[in-house]
Amino acid sequence: MPLDTSTYSLGLLRVDGRRWNELRRIHAQIRTQAAADGSSYLEMGHTKVMCVVTGPTEPGPRRGGNVGSAGGAGAASGGQHKDAEVLVNIVIAGFSSVDRKRRGKGDKRTLEMQSTVANALAASLHIHLFPHSQITISLHVLSQDGSLLAALINAATLACVDAGIPMTDYVAACTAGSTSTYAANDESADPLLDLNHQEEQELPGLTVATLGETDRVAVLVCESRVQVSRLEGMLAVGVDGCKQVREILDRVVREKGRKMIQEGTVERGTGLNDMDVD
Amino acid sequence: MPREAEPSLNEREFVLKALQENTRLDGRELDQYRPLELTFGDQYGVADVTLGKTRVLAKASAEVTVPYTDRPLDGIFNIATELSPMTSPAFEVNRPTETEVLISRLLEKTVRRSGALDTESLCLVAGQKCWSIRVDVHVLSHDGNLIDAACFAVVAALRHFRKPDTSMEGGVLTVYTPAEREPVPLSWLHSPFCITWSFFGEEGEIALLDATWLEEQVRVGSCTISLNKHGEICQIAKLGGTPVEAVALLQCTNVALSRAKDFSAFLDRKLAEDAKRRDKGGLLAELSAENDR
């Protein structure tokens, strides 16, 4: 289904009525599963992801032949290490996309996403505090509408916050794209923020994840052909979008914290004097 | 599963300290590649790439098969990557490690998804017969930077490859042997090359190209950029690792573009040399009964 670019140039609106620099609605919750160490639920537009974090725990038996949970952390992967191992397992539900496609356990795209999420979080989590242990992140994709990797990273970050694992900062992710295809070499191409499925199919785009409020890029994945000159604009918009996403994630966490204090689930800490609880 | 021995703490410290002072253990500049060598086999479509002590062999082959039902007008193109125990005890047969999956995914995205090979030209009879092109990548020796070497080998092998000529007459498909008709090259659209940056230091502020295995073991992150000589990015993969400044990544991309142009020129030269070596002076010279005495 080709994107009607004529509509774009007329009203400067995209297929779903957004402007170039607008994110889709992000709705997030943390502590959705009471029994889990950490859990979250995140919607970015129609992309819906659930995440459960278990750990840090003692490492289970070695995963023999269990390809589904690959994704060791950074340099350490094997039996005994001085850092905690971050394992990520992604399950993409059959009903999540329009065409019900069955993905096997060894699907390379899923494996790549698992290892990306694991490595991105391992760099932000203070895994050196938990030697000889493992942190398991299970992600469930309930609905897909573009920016899947970004949603997975955001959900995993929130769940890690909920699990109380010390980390440097939020790893916030979003996508950015460019309005014309690689063939058209027009310089007037606008960058776009937060692509949906239709735009992702049609236009060049990339996924960016940054650490906190800095401009430091933890994940950068581009899977389409695009002119080098276009990269700078897309990256700038993407990094800016990540900062907006970080604000939203931060708000979700603070909101939940406030609620928990009000309900008396947790004691009000000493460092929270500046926080408006009532 | 045996594990690759990790470098000792002293070794690690030594490499990193040296890098802080802009020195690499083998005396290269930070953005300098090891000597790249490419040899073609006697057969068409065999490329042997050596990058320092890393050695990768790629072999392209073609056979006639039935196309996929959902893509009746396209041929089939596959890249199979194999890391055998010969390379390192950490690799096992039939159990792809994470490295192997990531390499094959990267090659797939760089060469196949970027449309380097025109798959529509592989179609022979719509929905019934098509060429299936397969590239087997064998890693013979692993001393870091497998991705760049493997990608170069795949592109070289495919550009060197010739598939048997065919003709369609009255609904009869004929595949000619090399003796009957000269094999034809694939319809090749552009040549993408992978350039991998490795990052070191607390904030990933030291970036270098073509890391050796030791450097790869102590790095904090990496970013693989695939480009062709026209300045088109085919793929970027920075899959986690220590966060790096966005501006630094843009600079890396610009340097990568010039490297990709170098690679492209090098490959063109090698292909021209090989074509000259194979050229016996046309059919007349080949059929001549005269012998050198």
Attribute tags:
A: 278 residues; alpha+beta; Ribosomal Protein S5, domain 2; four-stranded antiparallel beta sheet; 5 helices; 10 strands; 24% strand; globular; B: alpha+beta
List the helices and strands and how they pair.
The complex is a heterodimer of chains A (278) and B (293).
Chain A: H1 5-11, E1 26-30, E2 38-44, E3 47-57, E4 85-92, H2 108-124, E5 134-143, H3 148-163, E6 171-178, E7 191-193, H4 197-202, E8 205-211, E9 216-222, E10 226-227, H5 228-263
Chain B: H1 9-20, E1 36-40, E2 46-51, E3 54-65, E4 76-82, H2 98-113, E5 123-125, E6 129-141, H3 146-160, E7 162-163, E8 166-169, E9 172-175, E10 184-185, E11 193-200, E12 206-209, H4 213-218, E13 221-227, E14 232-238, E15 244-245, H5 246-278, H6 282-287
Parallel strand pairs in B: 4-6
Antiparallel strand pairs in B: 1-2, 2-3, 3-6, 5-6, 7-10, 8-9, 11-12, 11-13, 13-14
Helix pairs in contact in B: 2-3
Task: Describe what you observe in this structure.
The complex is a heterodimer of chains A (278) and B (293). Chain A is α+β, with helices and mostly antiparallel strands and 278 residues long. Chain A has a single domain (13-268), classed as GHMP Kinase, N-terminal domain (Ribosomal Protein S5, domain 2). Chain A is built from five helices and ten strands. Chain A has helices at 5-11, 108-124, 148-163, 197-202, 228-263; strands spanning 26-30, 38-44, 47-57, 85-92, 134-143, 171-178, 191-193, 205-211, 216-222, 226-227. In chain A, α2 packs across α3. The longest helix of chain A is centred in the C-terminal third of the chain and has 36 residues, at 228-263. Chain B is of the alpha+beta class and 293 residues long. In chain B, a hairpin with a 2-residue loop joins β2 (46-51) and β3 (54-65). Chain B contains six helices and 15 strands. Chain B is globular and about 70 Å long. Chain B has one domain: 2-Layer Sandwich (Ribosomal Protein S5, domain 2), CATH 3.30.230.70. The chains are: A alpha+beta (278), B alpha+beta (293). Chains A and B meet through α2, β8, β9, β10 and α5 of A and α2, β13, β14, β15 and α5 of B. β10 (226-227) of chain A pairs antiparallel with β14 (232-238) of chain B.
